[in-house]
Every structure is written in structure tokens, then in C-alpha cells.
Amino acid sequence: MTNTNQSQTASEAARKAALAKQAAPKLGLLTTEQKNHALLRMADSLVAEAESIIAANTEDLQRGQENGTSASLLDRLALNHKRIEAMAEGLRQVVELPDPIGELLEETTRPNGLHIRKLRVPLGVIGIIYEARPNVTVDAAGLCLKTGNAVVLRGGSSALSSNKRIVEVLHAALSETDLPADALQLVEDPSRASVDEMLKLNGLLDVLIPRGGASLIQNVVKNATVPVIETGAGICHTYIDASAQVVMALQIGLNAKVQRPSVCNSMETLLVHRAFAERHLSMIADQFVQQSVELRGDVEARKLVPAFKEAADEDWDTEYNDYILNVRVVNDIDEALEHIRLHGTMHSECIVTENAENAVRFLQEVDAAAVYHNASTRFTDGFEFGFGAEIGISTQKLHARGPMGLPALTSTKYCIQGSGQIRG
Amino acid sequence: MTNTNQSQTASEAARKAALAKQAAPKLGLLTTEQKNHALLRMADSLVAEAESIIAANTEDLQRGQENGTSASLLDRLALNHKRIEAMAEGLRQVVELPDPIGELLEETTRPNGLHIRKLRVPLGVIGIIYEARPNVTVDAAGLCLKTGNAVVLRGGSSALSSNKRIVEVLHAALSETDLPADALQLVEDPSRASVDEMLKLNGLLDVLIPRGGASLIQNVVKNATVPVIETGAGICHTYIDASAQVVMALQIGLNAKVQRPSVCNSMETLLVHRAFAERHLSMIADQFVQQSVELRGDVEARKLVPAFKEAADEDWDTEYNDYILNVRVVNDIDEALEHIRLHGTMHSECIVTENAENAVRFLQEVDAAAVYHNASTRFTDGFEFGFGAEIGISTQKLHARGPMGLPALTSTKYCIQGSGQIRG
Fold first, then answer.
1. Which segments constitute the Aldehyde dehydrogenase domain (chains A, B) (predicted)?
2. What is the pTM of this model?
């Protein structure tokens, strides 16, 4: 049973989720114009209040330095005028996107005269647990509010001062609009307990979306009783078939590995057909090495290129997110498919081939969110797919799979109009 | 990481889920004709083997009698030639339904030439945990296999002998078809441990669908780490507005309560606008009493009809599934909406009114899978909605909401064809 009358003694997460839930119905009824107006006010306020946000961010950076946070992490955490302008620009782009709420998905009139419509509605209250840069705070808020959803944000403790100030600024902006400010909530308790509690807020949260590293996501998937949309982990393969064009195979492979190794749609393992490998693996390997990629091969690959390190068993199941690549030589497409079945994470997989039959087989038989023929796995992305936004990349099969745009943040409702029909 | 090489020491549930997972890719590639042929063979075999199924069922019935099972439960458990023919007929009806697999849902060509298709694919392996009659075994198997999904069934221990024999018969039928028999698995361990284990088979099961009473469903929702589609609980309301036609309101209310009180889309609480109640509640109450319905009223309802029992606080949150009805008098539609928001389970809700504005408000503002204007909540059903089948009624907002037909048992996959595109 839903309990929105959370008392003062309830935890911060439960209290704030209850406030969000109370705001959600009103938010769900706003027009697109009302929501867009609110998003634009949010964008303007971020820019107007940039100084105070940067001041709060400085506190986070100082605390990070004292705690020995790495330089690369501090760089991700740091805000400046340009980054704040980019956050505001992100909100303005969401304004431009079509509003999915209210869309008529199905319509039928039954023989008994019942008129049934299936309409797109908000999910309700979305919990987002993340650890990344403060821009996620603005990004997630914009996408959720545009789709009529209230949102409870729980960001990483390293960005707490920044996130608090950002949400203060956004609340002040919303207070001058029709969008209830309570629809946006930030859980400030930096302890693990606040995350643990959010995972169990059934009746207050309709869905949880974790965004972050594998351990954060696995904690949510394993412990949440609230429904979860799993995002993230990608052990992506590129299979170079016997008939692949050499230059194309090289370019796609290089792009999938080195264009941005730290992200989930980058390649971790290159599978190469023996016929191709015998002629071209040595050249391909040279090109990867020139891009500072460490190569780890199976026995057959190392016969062809003895310079490869030996790949350990666990390497085939490791998401490096780094300049490291496994290379395996396979005898045919079946071996490639079997390898992907055993070691893939159902994220993004690619075949490079001129053989139409093998391309069809690969596209059909690989069980993944995105399966590519002759294109880099790096394209698995909401913007690259033309969605204009992305809340994450779902690696589960329920509800949403692959890059999630605005419709992934919606549910449906059947509205049935009759004239006194009863069931016989 | 997925592990399909479950050793002999793995539990029965894990071993059988692994077999199902291995069978799933082959099943997913079958044509509609191949799947339909298999379903028809299953139907024919059930009828041909009816005697042996009835013999096994007799064992269940005897065990039930020895254990003191109630007569109504024994009746639900009992199989005879007519019921087995009905199970076979159910499979034949699934054959007639369109196959959703392979459906092209979206198609786009991006400015860079990437051709992106979003296709409907099977979910993979579906776990179904149920306690109901043995017909669920056949029903669930038919719906899952038609949609290219392997299925791991875990039925109630009271029907174990029946379920074992049914699955033996279906396996024998499948062995003469292209559909891999391993795609259908029955977990026979009757202990609670086998359920507990299924809840955690991430990587082997893609989704769990519990079917049964509230405690079974809550156990699955609260403890599963595999994604769940929640079905079931329905505390459904009918709100009679001031302007409702009297006869229509009476007929819809009676139908929602007494046509089949034991099911989730039946009504538990009648909300009546004061203006309507003052004129008609006494007459309405008489009609319910004539249908053997016990009535429990709030203070205001009891002022109008002193014969009502007093409704206790917890009654408003109770799914009776019985000839009991709560009655509350409200001052306006806002009070009705607030009551439903606090006590509804987002299943099915109805307004009876001639006021178009109130009808629109109710349809828009009530957050439920199915919202009715001037029709009985009893229509929330896959067959009544024209889906031709129903795997259950989802009361969650993710993936599927409301009656679930075949498309609810599918996922999607992006297939991307390029000509060497790389990301810049």
C-alpha cells in the first residue's frame, strides 16, 4: 500500500520520495508548453547563478584534493562557466524534443462498443542513482521533467556541494513556473544507507535507473525491490569475417577501440576469421600498437603475431574501458557467434563482412541491444540514433533496450469509454 | 557473466534454466509456421494422452484429499476430458494469433547513411512461478513458445503429478518437431528452495512472471534479482458521480462486484457522490444485498443506510475477492480521486457519469492500468481487449501495463547496417 504521509521521522530519502510522489500527478497533467517554459527557466537560472554554482563546486574540489582524489576524477568533477553553459544548453535541447506524453499508441472499438485507447503517460517518480559529474543532475532532471515524471536524484558524495547548489537554483527557477518544485528532489545524505533505502521505496518510486560503474549498477540490480532499468556494462566485440574489406575492418576496429575507450560501447575483444588473420592480422596489430593499444591474444593469434601478450581466461570477460584489446582467431562465423554468446554482455556487437549471408546471420543470431554490420559499435548512443537525448543505454530486455530516449521514461494507460457495458 | 555450463551439482532449477537458455537461440530463429506446427502437435498430444494425464491428476487429487485440501481447491485442480480438450483448444487459439516476432517497429536512415531498424525479438527465457490450476502449465507454455521464448515453469506442488505428466506429453510432441524440447522446462522440486533459487538466476532467466495470490507475487517482487513483471492485486473502485444514470450505475456496479468476485478486476469499493447517494443509495444497497453482497459503509454511507456494517480502516485496503463491498459517500470527484490515489492498486478504476468534464478528469487523473468511463472494470482482460490471449495483467508501469498479450512477451533489438561508418 502506498503511504505518502511519511512522518517527520522517516528518512530523508523516504520523505523526499513522498514529496515527489505528491507532486507527480500535477506534473503529469501539465501541457508541453508549461513543461518547456519551466525547462527554459531552469536553463536561464543556471547561467545566471553560475558564480554561486562554481563556488559550491570549489568546495567539492577542495574536499576531493584533501581526500586524494585523482586528477582525472577532479577534472570530471570541475565546473566552469563553459560547462555550466553546456548544461543549460542541454536543457534547451530537451525543450526542442517532441513531448511523448499523451501520444495515442493504439485505438480500437470492440464489438460491444467499448472504445479503448492506449495512451503514453509518465512513469510517475523516477529514482536516479549516479556517481558521475554534476551535469548528470541537470541532465536527468531535464529528461524526467520533460516526460512529466517527478525525480529523486541521489548523486555521488564527491559532488554533493555542487549538486545541492544546482538543485537550489533549479528549485528557485521552478517556483516561478507551473511545474511543482517538489517534483525535483535531491537526496543529500552521502552515506550508503540512503542508497540502500531508495532501493526499497516501493510505492513511492516507480523505477530506479542506476548510472555509473559496474559495482554501483550491480548493487542496485541485486538489492532493489523497486523495478530497475539496468544500464551500462559493455563487453563489445568486433568480428572481422573472411571477406571483410581490409581498410574498412581496420578503421571500424580502431574506431571501436580508441575513439573513446572509457565508454561502454567501445570494443574489448576483436575476433578475426583465420583466413583474414593469416593475411592481415600483423598489419592490423601494428596499427593498434601505434595507437598505444596493448594487445592480448589467444594461442592462434599469438602464432600469427608473437608480440601479443597471452590473454588470460578472465580477460575475455573484462570490460577494460582502457587501451587494452583481446584478439582471438576463429575458424568461422559459428565460433565467433559462440564466443559472443559466452562472453558478450548483450550491449553492442559488430560484424565486418562483404558476405551478405553471414551479415544476415550475425544480425539475426546475436542477442544484443545493438548489432552492427560494417559500422563501429561506438554508434550505440541516443544522439547518434537520432533520439536527441539519452538517459542511458539499457542492457536488459524488459521495458527498454539499447539507447533510451524520452519514450523510455514513459508508461502507458488504457482509457476505456463505454455507454453502460457490463461483462456477460 | 552468463554461465550455461551448469555442472551436474547445480540445482534442478539452475540446470533446467541452463538447458532452456541453450535452446532459446534456436527457438528464436524458427518461422511462425514451425512454431505453429509445434503448438498444434502439443494440442493433439494432450488430447491423445488425456487418459494418462487424468491418471496423474488423480494422484494429485488423492494427495490433496489426504492433506485436507478444500473442495473448491480440489475442483480447480481436477482434470477431465473436457478440461483437457479446453487446454488443447487454448493452444489452437494461440496458433491463430499473429506472431509478433520479427515485426519492424521503427526504421530510420541517419544522415551518415547508417540504416537502423528496431525489430521485435523474443525476451529469451521466461520463468513462470504459479500455483494455479494445471491449465496454466499448457497456457503459459503455448504463449511463451509462440513468441519464441524458452520457458521454465515452476507450478504449485499440489498439481505436481499433473504438471509432470503434461510436460512429458508436451516434450514427446515437441521431439517430433523443429522446436527444441529443451525450450520447455518444468522445475519439479516442490520445496520453497526451488522458488527462492529461480528468483536469483540472473543470466539464465531474462524475466520472471509470478501468477497467483498476493503472497506469492510479493515474495517474487521483494526477493527476485531477475527482472519481474508484477501481476495481480486489484483493489478496484467504481465512482458513481452526481449525474450518473441510475440504472447504468447500478448495472455497472453490480457487474463489477458479483459477476466474478474472485478475480482481480472485480470491484472492492463503491464511491458514491453525496447527491446521488441521498436519492439512490438505499435502492442500490438493496440490489447488492439481493445478490448476497455484504456491505460495509463509512460514517456518511451508514447515515443514509443504517443497515451497513461499519467499514474498518483496513477494509479500504483489502482485496476481498469475495461477496463483500465497501461503500463510501464522497462530496465531489476530488474526494473520489483522492481516495483512489490512496487506496487503489493501479489496476482498474471506473467513473459512472453523464458529466463529460468529470469523465475526462477521471480518465486523465487516475493513475491505473485501465480507467473506465461508463463500463464495468471486469473488462480488464486480454480477451476482452481483443488480444486473443493473456499471460496476466501487469500492475507495474515498466515494460507492460494492463492485460498482457503476446507483444508483452517480446523485447526489441536494433539492427544497424552500414558501409564502414566510424564515429568522429
1. 6-292
2. 0.91
